[in-house]
Amino acid sequence: MAENCRISTTFVEYKESGKRPLNYEPKGGIHMNQITLTSGGIVIVRPAGELDHHTADSIKREVSRLIFGGKASAVIWDLGSLQFMDSAGIGLILGRMRDLGAVEGGTVILNPSPTMKKMFELSGLGSHLLEGTQEDAIKRLGGILHGK
Amino acid sequence: MENEMTLSFAAISENEALARMTLTFFVAALDPTLEEISEYKTVISEAVTNAIIHGYEEDRSGIVTVHAALDGREVTVTISDQGGGIENVEEAMQPMYTSKPERERSGMGFTIMESFTDSLSVDSGQEGGTTVTFKKKFSPVQETCSSVG
């Protein structure tokens, strides 16, 4: 049952001008997925726990809503807290790249585990991988979004 | 055969985690590396998800059965369903092929499974039912603690 699921998604939306998040209610402990929208229109998705076919849907809904609502033009997938991912994660990221196609946005996949890295490389997503901080990813997207 | 187990469960997506967890415990005594266990869990997850989504079309009355057997440091795992079957196994195993593009399947499941196992076979047909069998050998435990002085 969804209400008993340990992996919950909390949406954190930052005010345009400030850094304090709106609607921030940590409920899921260490297994919480976090989705943050920066003032520059970049969605930062930080999934936690295990990402499979069962858990991918809630992230998909939230990120697609932000892209189609015109609020987001790029996505950073920060996988540093993710303990497990199967090909549902590949489908989730490829699907959002398709959503972004209409707005010419960028995608960065940050800090995947060695196993996840192999899966991304097999899927042709190797050029989107980055080891570093969220700031590094935002810098790279700045270059992509401004055609540098 | 040193050990074996069988697990059967309803074709519900919540049970993907159950299968991964149970089969991880089954090989825990071999002390696999983090990467080995991660690859092994991925293969199980792909095969069980295929059975639920493709075999049973998420019909919750379907039953997925997983059998595992240990021989030395090699595990042989069989994941089977009595669902719809794969019409053309060769086509289904091509990278990026998916019969359900609307469901956001990446089409990479079989490619990933082949990459993370020592051998993989898929037995299916139009008459129904699919059995995926894979073997994975875990590397010998490295002696990392040595006495000093």
Automatic annotation (TrEMBL), chain A:
It comes from the Bacteria. SUPFAM superfamilies: SpoIIaa-like. InterPro entries: Anti-sigma_ant, STAS_dom, STAS_dom_sf. Pfam families: STAS. Residues 32-125 form the STAS domain. Gene3D superfamilies: STAS domain. GO terms for molecular function: anti-sigma factor antagonist activity. NCBIfam families: ant_ant_sig. Belongs to the anti-sigma-factor antagonist family. This is Anti-sigma factor antagonist. It comes from Bhargavaea cecembensis DSE10.
UniProtKB/TrEMBL annotation, chain B:
One of its GO terms (biological process) is sporulation resulting in formation of a cellular spore. It holds the Pfam family HATPase_c_2. Residues 35-140 form the Histidine kinase/HSP90-like ATPase domain. GO terms for molecular function: ATP binding; protein serine kinase activity; protein serine/threonine kinase activity; sigma factor antagonist activity. Its EC number is 2.7.11.1. It catalyses: L-threonyl-[protein] + ATP = O-phospho-L-threonyl-[protein] + ADP + H(+); L-seryl-[protein] + ATP = O-phospho-L-seryl-[protein] + ADP + H(+). Keywords: ATP-binding, Kinase, Nucleotide-binding, Serine/threonine-protein kinase, Sporulation, Transferase. It comes from the Bacteria. HAMAP family: Anti_sigma_F. NCBIfam families: spIIAB. Binds to sigma F and blocks its ability to form an RNA polymerase holoenzyme (E-sigma F). Phosphorylates SpoIIAA on a serine residue. This phosphorylation may enable SpoIIAA to act as an anti-anti-sigma factor that counteracts SpoIIAB and thus releases sigma F from inhibition. Belongs to the anti-sigma-factor family. This is Anti-sigma F factor. It comes from Bhargavaea cecembensis DSE10. The lineage of its organism: Bacteria, Bacillati, Bacillota, Bacilli, Bacillales.
